[in-house]
Structure formats: structure tokens, C-alpha cells
Amino acid sequence: MPDSRYSDLDRPPLSEAALNRALVRPGGLWTGVTVVESTGSTNADLARAAQEGAAEGAVLVAEAQEAGRGRLGRVWNAPPRSGLTFSILLRPEVPVASQGWLPLLYGVAAASAVRRLAEVDVRLKWPNDLLIGERKLAGVLAERADDAVVVGMGLNVSLRATELPVATATSLAIEEAACLDRDPLLRAVLREVEVHYREWTAAGGDAEACGLRAAYLAASATVGRQVRVELPGRPALIGRASGIDRSGCLEVEGPDRLHTLSAGDVVHVRPAE
Ligand SMILES: O=C(O)CCCC[C@@H]1SC[C@@H]2NC(=O)N[C@@H]21
Q: Whose CA is nearest to atom 7 of ligand 1?
């Protein structure tokens, strides 16, 4: 049954011109925002552009995605204009060992922007899922393209309960958030990413020195919790998430020893205390 609280009027298109006016400025990180009606994957498109030599700071937004890519080989699809699906192209000049912080940085920035604008309590499931309670509001996928990194985000804005890809997801509309307007949400996320990225690169990628590690721990819903981590090609690990190391890896106190994980799918197995 259609949900009478929503109509297509709640899903106005994004204006490329307005976004460029708001975000692109001399000396700023963002060099241009492109809005397309539909594409396969904004991450794949920007990865191709990166390989062809595109400069840092390109932003690509799609009103609809037909083959959106998620972490660990999953898909990310949403009805047109019901969310934000966009990618950015970065060329971080920091040591490779520190680059694992980039997806976490993005999570911290996006969570802070959404929290402020939408007035919802967003926390981070490692590495960078945005959660409200235990429900997923947004996901972030960082992919290497030669020496560039493409970071894409999918944020559920006006999805109705019947449109959620999985029952464990949520949207700003379902959470009765203070803002369902995609334009200010997108601007806020990109501005916050720029601030954190500038601080992190100025600190040579040292997440401790620029306060990123502390900001991540403050936003984390995972550290301190009992977790099950599904690991690619290995049995799942059950233990207590105890910290984040210097490279952004998750530390889990397992039954045998301390494990340091650079990838994996975390499940919070007990409610937060
Ligand atoms: O699995 C996740 O949680 C990450 C989802 C990331 C989806 C976004 S949508 C925009 C960008 N383009 C893609 O193909 N994927 C990312």
C-alpha cells in the first residue's frame, strides 16, 4: 500500500549548478560536481576517470544507480532520488600505511554532517557504516584506482520502509529526521570531508596527530562491543572489539589472542551497554 506521508514531491532533483556554486571555490578541494540522471556505478565511473588522469576533487552524483557497488562484493541500489549516491576522487599524498584511515575519515565526516543537519544520533560500525541504533543509514566504499582513491557513499534519505533493501536498514524519513533535503545534506557531507581531509593530509596522514583517531573512537558504535567478524576466506572471529590501531585496523580480543583486522564484516552481537 502506498505510504501517504510521502509523494514524489518529496524527491526533487538535485541542481548541478547550485551544487557547483556552493562547493567549488578557488583553492578548495572540490573542482567540479557532475549530476547524472542514471549510471551503473559512480565509483566505477570515477575510477575510470582517475585512470585517465582526472584531477583530485571531482564529485559525481547519480540520481539513480543500476549497478551500485557495496563493500565485500555486495550491491547498493535505491529508488531514484530517494537517497544520495555519489563518489569523490582523491589523490592523498600521505604514506601508503596511513591510507587505511581514508574510509574511516569519510565515515567520521559524514556522520558528523548528518548528525548536525538531520538531528539524528548517528554512530559508526567499523569501518564506516553509518548506523542509527543498529540500523544502517548509509554505507561507504573506498576503492583504489591506480594512485587515486575513489570514495563513494550511499545515504538513505526518503526511502519508505517498504523500499528498504534489507530489513536491517533505515532512512532519514523513517527516523523522522529534521532534514530530508538532499542538497544541504550533500553539501554538509562534502564540506565536512574537506575539513577532515585537509587536517589529515597536513598531518602527513597521522590520524593521532590531527585528532582523527579520537574523533573516530568518539563516533564508534563498535569499539568496546562484543562482535562477530565475518572474514574473507576464514572462519568468523568472535571477540571484543578493543581499539583501532595506527593504520585504522580494528583490534579484536579473540579467544586466543589479539587480532588486527584490515577487512571484514562486523556484527554487533550484544546490545550497547
Ligand atoms: O556496502 C556498503 O555499505 C557501501 C555502499 C556504497 C554505495 C555507494 S553508492 C555511490 C557509490 N557508487 C557505488 O557503486 N557504490 C558507492
A: 154
The domains of the chain are located at 16-217, 222-268
Strand partners, 117: none
Predicted complex ipTM: 0.99
pLDDT, one tens digit per residue, over 151-163 is 999 999 999 999 9
Pocket of ligand 1 contains residue 127 by CB under 6 Å = no
Options 3.30.930.10, 3.10.20.310, 3.10.350.10, 2.40.30.10; CATH for 16-217 is 3.30.930.10
Cβ(156) to ligand 1 under 6 A? no
Residue nearest to atom 3 of ligand 1 (CA): 139
- Answer whether 69 contacts ligand 1 (Cβ < 6 A): yes
Give distance in angstroms: CA of 51 to centre of ligand 1: 19
How confident is the model over 144-153, as pLDDT tens digits? 999 999 999 9
| Entry pTM | 0.95
Domain 222-268, CATH: 2.30.30.100
- Closest atom, ligand 1, to C-alpha of 153: 8
Measured CA to CA, the distance from residue 42 to residue 69 in angstroms comes to 9
Same fold: 16-217 with 222-268: no
Q: Long-range contacts for 205-210 (Cβ within 8 Å, ≥24 apart)?
A: 205/92, 205/94, 205/95, 205/97, 205/98, 205/99, 205/101, 206/98, 207/98, 207/101, 207/104, 207/105, 207/246, 207/248, 208/246
